[in-house]
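Sanity check

After download, print the first record. It should look like this:
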Amino acid sequence: MHQQQTIRQPVTCTGVGLHSGCQVSLTLTPAPADTGIVFIRTDLRARPRVPAVIANVRPTLLSTTIGVDGVQVQTIEHLLAAASGLGIDNLYVEVDAPELPAMDGSATPFVSLLQEAGIAAQGRYRTYVKIVRSIEVTEGDKEISIHPASTASVTYAIDYDHPLIRSQAYTYDGSSDSFIRDIAPARTFGFLREVEELWEAGLGLGGSLHNTLILSDEGLLNEGGLRYRDEFVRHKVLDLVGDMTLLGMPVVGEILAVRSGHALHARLVSRILESRDNWVFVSAESHAPAGRLRELPPSLVASPQRA
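Expected structure tokens:
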């Protein structure tokens, strides 16, 4: 599908914010072509809008937060990943709290919600950012890079000193079928020993065994067990897919991530936009490189605040 897409009709869900513990109602509604994904805080009188672009990223721990003029929306990455995985470009996200609902800690509930709404092609073609020279960001032993390729893909590697994780790696081929089947169900995870630290930081207040995989020193506390043996690295892929939507348009390239995280994901997006000689626009209308069809607006190019 080379046309832009939105949803056919509004859909609503409710839940609890993972970090805030707030009850949240979320409604997804169709948006015109070239809108992107825009969050709307319906609990505030002015109903302020916060576009999901890199310039609006704000510092946070363990999730992706965006904000404009002091108005923020937190933990947006799982919904963004679901939209990206289904090829949805334009969407209004109405939310009556400062954080999205955690649902079950994965992207599958959001995938189901979007599928219930139906996907509609729009009368405008996509423009892609095609990587032509490699771009890399490192921080200590963490690194993430993107390289020229004919398709979009993600390879992620992690290692933790825990018997259920150790070293894991996974490659996602960028297809919708693979996202729905292999990536979306992977849940967020955390360590029992870190729970009190999260509480002290004002985070994790809505976390539970219903929306988070909790690891003790010996094993997993969740009675249902893992959905995949390597569910942990698959969830890291999920987070990266969501964070890459902050670029503002789909990217064509091979992403390699090692022990990365939300902050480094955001730095890669920012570095891509700053490295103007390392990519070209590709027009889906012509199915061929179209050069620099237009300049990106300053709101997309600005660097994020460090998380």
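If your output differs, re-run the checksum step. Summary of this record's structure: Helices lie at 77-85, 108-117, 176-183, 195-200, 231-244, 262-274, 298-301.
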